[in-house]
Amino acid sequence: MNIFFVHPSARSRFPEPPMGLASLIIIALRKNCKVAFYDEDKHNKSFVYEDIIREFNPDIIAVSFMTSQFAFARNLIDRAKRIKPDLPVIVGGVHAAALPEDTMLDLGNVNYLCYGEGEKTFDGFVDYMSGSKRVEEIKGLVFRRNGEIVKNTLMPLLSADELNKLQMPAWDVIYKHGVYTSALTYWNKIVPVFPVITARGCPYHCTFCDEGTIWKRILREREIDAVINEVKYLHKKWGAGHFNILDDTFTLKPKRVIEFCDKLLENNLTINWRCTAKVGTVTPEMLSYMKKAGCKMIAYGVESGDQQILNLIMKKQTLEQVKDAFRITKEAGIMSFALCMVGNIGEDFESVKKTARFVSELNADLFSCAIMTPYPGSENFEVCKKNGWILHYDWDKWVPTPINIREFVPVSRTDKMDRHLMLKSYYYLSRKFLISKLVRRYGKLFFVNPRFYYNEIITRLKSAGLHGFTRHMLRLFGIAK
Ligand code: B12
Ligand code: SF4
Fold this sequence. Notes:
It is a single chain. With 481 residues, the protein is an alpha/beta fold. The protein has two domains: 2-151, Cobalamin-binding domain (Rossmann fold, 3-Layer(aba) Sandwich); 179-432, TIM Barrel (Alpha-Beta Barrel). The protein has helices spanning 19-30, 40-43, 49-56, 70-83, 94-98, 100-106, 119-129, 160-165, 171-174, 212-215, 224-238, 254-266, 284-292, 307-312, 319-331, 349-362, 379-386, 419-442, 450-476; strands at residues 2-7, 34-39, 60-64, 89-92, 112-114, 141-145, 148-151, 181-184, 189-192, 194-196, 199-200, 220-221, 242-245, 272-277, 295-303, 335-342, 366-371. A hairpin with a 2-residue loop joins strand 6 (141-145) and strand 7 (148-151). Iron/sulfur cluster is lined by residues 202, 204, 206, 209, 211, 248-249, 278, 301. Iron/sulfur cluster binds next to loops.
């Protein structure tokens, strides 16, 4: 059986390898299927999508997407069906999992949908397609029957044991036409970057996050030895010199993190890496191990500089813990990245100002600001929907920043912010971040430093184009709306 795996565009200048599809491709290979893989952002210049369909002649097309990739997914599915109208299409990913029926209704060309963790469902689906199982038996599958949408019961999550027994994702298929690269701020150059996941799931309940949709807020850890073997393989076979740990909160268990670091060192894997962590879980001891083992940067979900907002969004962290985490990270010699938000339910412009003041004291190396986007599956989605606050369902514009989006409109308003105030807050916070970053990098007189013009203006002009860049800057400095 020939299966064509497709990853629609995420509008990324530096696309990242789709771990979800890599985890399914290996299942297909184990079942002796032939596979082809197309990543729209990475391969659209080297391959003609339609040509792959004609030449490979798939029996199934499997598409993975998140909310913001919806329109790109539809486009690729429709184009495939124009060539081969009977081609069975199966989709999955976090958006499909949160809104299975709606997705089937919206995407008329989709035949099957997986609404949970994919490995076991996909395994059963391939059996069904080859005639050895009935469709009703495949847990986690949604399908059409006589014009109706039928939803089988949910597939239970893989147990930790099953997760450990999974084969390594099919990296050889994903990298066949070239490894993925990224521009890392701390190297100022473009380097190959590889994803690694050591655990699935996060036990927290932040109201803006859709983490529970697939992973059900249950933490399942892989054995460290298996993760190390994967890193070793990526290093040896594909020259991995840098990896991103995709875990939602890598630092939850200090002993495990230390074991991971120890084993990287024991195996002489002097590779740089970065991860996302939760403040309050990092300790100086853990951070010193991480530094020794190659950790270059940690991203922390700061979200807000107003304790009341942190409580409302169930972030389970205090401002003191945030400050401590950034201080000890700096002391350990690791770069820190502050991820902040504006527009959470209950937040007004005064709390945005508090965030700006708070973050300027953190002395973080990097910042980013996101506008609250109530992704399906999050608590905020339900609250915003119930209150009629959602402003549009233009899924491909469901992104938390206006960068790269024409005619961006925040997805939702809230009790305290309309869409204008949301945008104003975003630009206010981003401006504060930008100025503090420029002063730190180039000094108070940054505008007379030639490096500032080269790094910050010319490079960005090249990537965003004159129109995009000018519009972004005018909004950032409050000159245009
Ligand atoms: C790595 C990552 C990225 C990478 C790459 C994503 C990629 N290539 O797929 C990058 C950096 C590009 C990225 C960008 C963004 N991301 Co992101 N990202 C992630 C992250 C951390 C890991 C994804 C992953 O690999 N998971 C592990 C794999 C194994 O899981 P999976 O992909 O879900 O796949 C499993 C199942 O879903 C299912 N499945 C998936 N596809 C299919 C297909 C079929 C056919 C079947 C049968 C099953 C199936 O089976 C798989 C195996 O079990 C997730 C968080 C998370 N925990 O998943 C967020 C996450 C996916 N991202 C998210 C968001 C919000 C974004 C951004 C919008 C953020 C931003 N600031 O702009 C952008 C989008 C950019 C754009 N313009 O579209 C949200 C998605 C919310 C949503 N509903 O869309 C998530 C869930 C984080 C969160 N909790 O909020 N992201
Ligand atoms: S925001 Fe982070 S800590 Fe909160 S639930 Fe989502 S993944 Fe977990």
